[in-house]
Design a protein that fits this description.
The chain is mainly alpha-helical. The chain has one domain. It is built from ten helices and no strands.
């Protein structure tokens, strides 16, 4: 069974109480949906979104078993192996998962997971507090400053970029554009209303 995007959100909320992890899952899911469209996989947009939404399902409760515990949870819930494998593959080389990202969907998830955090942090530093006016040039400056959003692994971003066969500026541009279309990403108007 492949969950619907709504079912994936419900599952994300069931296993994550903190707003940080819930928001991250939503953003990555929305970015993955947009990337599916950008890359000609519109017919798989729901699948890509579900994978992005659920990729860190276990991280809040079991960070030391990240990617391994979520495999168990998803299999027990009867979730299709395509989703299980794709979610687990984003931790390849970082956690105990044996799954190397091989499909385009898995490679995109591996590449954008860390980058969405960096983009979100860069957007919040802007006067607009928004991804809507963030440009690649500004993001590259933040990316080069290893102290900025230090928890976002530049090494993983580079590995993901290379796996896709892209240059870093292309990944940055595509991900910024996807985040501009992501309702959960930082947009100035939404921040101002709060």
């Amino acid at each position: 069974m492949v969950p619907t995007p709504q079912q994936a959100l419900e599952m994300l909320d069931e296993y994550n109480e903190g707003e940080f992890h819930r928001t991250h899952g939503r953003i990555v899911g929305e970015v993955m949906r947009d990337m599916a469209a950008q890359l000609g996989h519109e017919d798989e947009a729901d699948l890509w979104q579900v994978v992005g939404t659920l990729h860190d399902l276990d991280f809040e409760r079991w960070p030391e078993e990240h990617c391994v515990r979520e495999e168990q949870i998803m299999r027990e819930a009867g979730i299709d192996e395509v989703v299980v494998r794709a979610c687990a593959s984003h931790g390849f080389g970082l956690t105990g998962t044996p799954y190397e990202p091989t499909s385009e969907m898995e490679k995109v998830l591996f590449a954008v997971d860390e980058l969405t955090g960096l983009i979100g942090a860069a957007a919040l530093m802007r006067p607009s507090k928004s991804v809507d006016d963030l440009e690649v040039k500004s993001l590259k400056k933040k990316y080069k400053d290893k102290r900025f959003a230090a928890g976002c692994s530049r090494e993983v971003i580079v590995q993901g970029t290379e796996a896709l066969g892209w240059e870093l500026p292309e990944l940055m541009e595509r991900t910024i554009l996807a985040m501009r279309n992501a309702p959960s990403a930082p947009h100035g108007k939404a921040v101002e209303q709060n």
